[in-house]
Amino acid sequence: MERAADDEGHEGLGARERDILALERRGFPGPGAKERAIREELDLSPVRYYQLLNALLDDPRALAHDPVTVNRLRRVREARRADR
Predict the structure, then answer these.
(1) Whole-Å CA distances, 69 to 26, 42, 73, 84
(2) Mean pLDDT, rounded, for 12-30
(3) 53 and 24 in contact (C-beta within 8 Å)?
(4) Rg for the chain (alpha carbons), in Å?
């Protein structure tokens, strides 16, 4: 279900970025399942995936595209930073 980058709500957000957010919306059944999906579906290493995801959380286009997921992940990130 590919959409053009200029569809309403996607101003400049690329297909890879939308795919990353879509993967984050999904639930995974057990350990390793998410990492396997990252490799198989996005053709990324988990390390690179999390680098891209972290940058995406600070992108206002991502917030406009999927505010629920982005805000949830921002809260998780801030909680982890506070624990350090």
Answers:
(1) 10, 18, 6, 23
(2) 93
(3) yes
(4) 13
Sequence letter at residue 7: D
pTM of the model: 0.81
DSSP annotation of 43: -
Task: For residue range 57-73, list pLDDT tens digits in order.
Answer: 999 999 999 999 999 99
CA neighbor of 48 nearest in space, from 23, 84, 81, 20: 20
Residue whose token pair is 């390390």: 47
The contacts of residue 59 (CB under 8 Å, 6+ apart) are 13, 17
What per-residue confidence (pLDDT) applies to 31?
83
Which pLDDT belongs to residue 3? 44
Helices H / strands E in the chain, number of each: 5, 0
